[in-house]
Amino acid sequence: MSVMRFSDKDLSCIYGSLADTVSHPSFMMSIDEESLMPFIIRVGLCNRLAYEYNYHNEKASELVLKIPTVSESDYSDMPLKKLIEQLLLLDYNCVTNSGRCFLDQKDKELLDQLVYCLRVRYIEILESQKR
Questions:
Q1: Closest by Cα among 64, 13, 73, 15 to 39
Q2: CB contact at 8 A, 102 and 49
Q3: CB-based burial, 102-117: b 16+ in 10 Å, e otherwise
Q4: pLDDT tens for each residue of 12-25
Q5: In the chain, N or C terminus with fewer CB closer than 10 Å?
């Protein structure tokens, strides 16, 4: 199990696509953009902490983390299926090789809830296409 580090651009794409999706009136949970941005930054920071925890050069005397810079305009919209996959990958990459997760319980629950709602939305879209 290895940890992949998400870039600012990766996080911006996730944020932008997620903001577009959750603002849709038919989305089954309510989260505003003011709460969504800090959430993505916190999850991105947890990802970077897990990455540095695994791959930190032990000879270095300090661990320096850069807080993610998530841009509202610097993203390309991704399909819903890819958004779900990216959120699951981000969730997986907030855990170290030794199983330590740096997400707090509240953010982990929100991430799980978002993934669940996105999956339900994706199923609804697939079902409507079959008709």
A1: 15
A2: yes
A3: bbeeebbebbeebbeb
A4: 999 999 988 888 87
A5: C
